[in-house]
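Title: Prediction job returns without error message
Component: structure pipeline
Severity: low
Priority: P3
Assignee: unassigned

Description:
Job completed but the reporter wants confirmation the result is attached to the right record. Sequence as submitted:
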Amino acid sequence: MAHLFADTKTPHILLVKTSSLGDVLHNLPVVSDIVRHYPGAQIDWLVEESFAALPKLHAAVRNVIPVAMRRWRGKLLSTATWREIAAFRNTLNAQHYAIAIDTQGLLKSALLMRGAHGLRCGFDRNSAREPLAASLYQRTFPVATGQHAVERNRQLAAQALGHTLEGQADYGIRPPAIARPAWLAEEPYAVLLHATSRANKLWSETNWIALGRHLHKKNIRCILPWGNNEEQARSLHLAEAVPGAVVPPHLSLNEAAALLGGAQAVIGVDTGLAHLAAALGVPTAGIYTATDPVLTGLHAGRCAVNLGNIDQAPDVAAVIDALQGMAAC
C-alpha cells in the first residue's frame, strides 16, 4: 500500500470508528502509529456525535466528522433528520482521501464509509465483527481474533497503510485544558466510576463504601460522577456513607476527561470512562463482574490493571492491592 503515498508526504486519511466510548478510545493509538510513519498525514475521523470530543483530544486529528445514527434512527420521519443526513453526506463527499480505514467492522460503519472518496479498507470476512461488512470494502485484511481491540485496530491500519508496527500502543492524548471547578478542592482525589450499562456489571455498594472509606483514611477524597438520575441517586447514597465524598454536577465528556486526568487513581466498572482514564495514563483499576476483560478490558500495562471476570467479582482487598501496585505510576 506504500505506493498510495509515493507522491506526497501529507497523505489524507479517514478513520472510521463511530462508537462506543471505549471502542473510540481503542482506536486512538492508530493515529499515533500513523503520524509516527507519516508525520505530515492529514487525519480525519468519522464518529458518532456524542463521542466527537474524544478524537479531538489527539493533536494529530485534523477534522472530526460527526454522524448521528443513534439519534436519526428514532426520527426517520422528520424532515430535519433528512436535512442532517444530506448535510453529513455533503461534508463527507467534499473530502478526497488517499485511503479510508474502517476499524469498526460493522455493516453500519461500512455503509457510512461508502460515501468517502478514497480506497476503502477494512477487516476481511473472517476478522470483521459483522462479516457482511467486508463485502463493502475495496480492500480487506486478515487480523487474528482473540487479541485486545487496540492491537487489532493497529494491525489493520498497519496492513492497510503498508507500515510495520513498532513499540507499545500510544493513545497520544492529554486532558483538555479546563479550569479546576469550584466543587473540586485542591487536594488529592480518586474517581470512583460505579455506573455501567448493565446491572450484572455493577460492583456492590458495600464494596464501594469500603473502598471509599479506605481512600478517605489515606487522605484521598472520593469523587462520584454520574450520567443519569438513577446513577446520581446511587452517587448520593454512596457519598452519605463515605466521609468527604463529592457528587459533582453532570459532566460533559470534556469535563469528565479533565477530572479523570487530574486524579490520583481511577477505579471503575466496565464503562467507557475507565478506558478514558487508562488512555490518559492515570493509574486505573478496572472491575469486571460479568465480562472477560481479555479482549475489550483496559489495555493493561504499568498504570492499568483488570480485575475479575465473568461471575468472578474482585473483592475490596484485591482492588486496594492493585492500587498499591500502581503507586509508582
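Comment from assignee: result matches the submitted record. The longest strand covers residues 42-48.
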